[in-house]
């Protein structure tokens, strides 16, 4: 989403092709943009469809292509862009690590681990995926993380019964 925001802030038109598994997110995003910035309605356009739709967009002569998704799909899109020398940006996630030292504030570390790993239902390219903790605090840190994660109640929105 960052790439979309940056491009729009710079005054560029954006064509957004969301995953074929979640097409409504793109449609909603474009509708929200149009209602928030009516003077620039249509600057963000959503195109939905299967992978072949994305392939067609990559071959359409766009000035730059930003991709978020799996490394395997990124390689395919990058190959198409290489054929036309289209600048390409890939966000493929990572194995984002958190290091907890022996003198760390364990409550703050546990809070950061739980938030970093579980915010946005864990679906973020910068979420905590692995934790390296000093041996002497490992067990206590694990207990604190388990306690915090164990009381979370996911839901569509924050209510007295959910955490978000």
From TrEMBL:
Domain annotation Aldehyde dehydrogenase: ranges: 2-163
InterPro entries found in the cross-reference section: Ald_DH/histidinol_DH, Ald_DH_C, Ald_DH_CS_CYS, Ald_DH_CS_GLU, Ald_DH_N, Aldehyde_DH_dom
Protein origin, superkingdom: Bacteria
Record flagged with keyword Phosphoprotein: no
PROSITE patterns: ALDEHYDE_DEHYDR_CYS, ALDEHYDE_DEHYDR_GLU
UniProtKB keywords: Oxidoreductase
Gene3D superfamilies: Aldehyde Dehydrogenase, Chain A, domain 1 (3.40.605.10), Aldehyde Dehydrogenase, Chain A, domain 2 (3.40.309.10)
Family to which this protein belongs: Belongs to the aldehyde dehydrogenase family.
Protein name: Aldehyde dehydrogenase domain-containing protein
Organism of derivation: Streptomyces haneummycinicus
């Amino acid at each position: 989403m960052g790439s979309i925001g940056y491009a729009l802030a710079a005054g560029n038109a954006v064509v957004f092709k969301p995953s074929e598994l979640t097409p409504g997110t793109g449609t909603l995003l474009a509708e929200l943009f149009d209602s928030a910035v009516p003077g620039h309605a249509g600057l963000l356009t959503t195109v939905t469809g299967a992978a072949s739709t994305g392939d067609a967009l990559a071959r359409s002569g766009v000035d730059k292509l930003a991709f978020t998704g799996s490394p395997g799909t990124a390689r395919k899109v990058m190959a198409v862009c290489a054929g036309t020398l289209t600048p390409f940006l890939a966000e493929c996630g990572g194995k984002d690590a958190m290091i907890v030292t022996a003198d760390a504030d364990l409550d703050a570390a546990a809070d950061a681990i739980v938030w970093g790993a579980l915010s946005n239902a864990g679906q973020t390219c910068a979420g905590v995926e692995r934790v390296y903790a000093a041996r002497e605090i490992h067990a206590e840190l694990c207990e604190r993380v388990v306690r915090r994660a164990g009381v979370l109640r996911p839901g569509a929105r924050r209510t007295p019964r959910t955490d978000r």
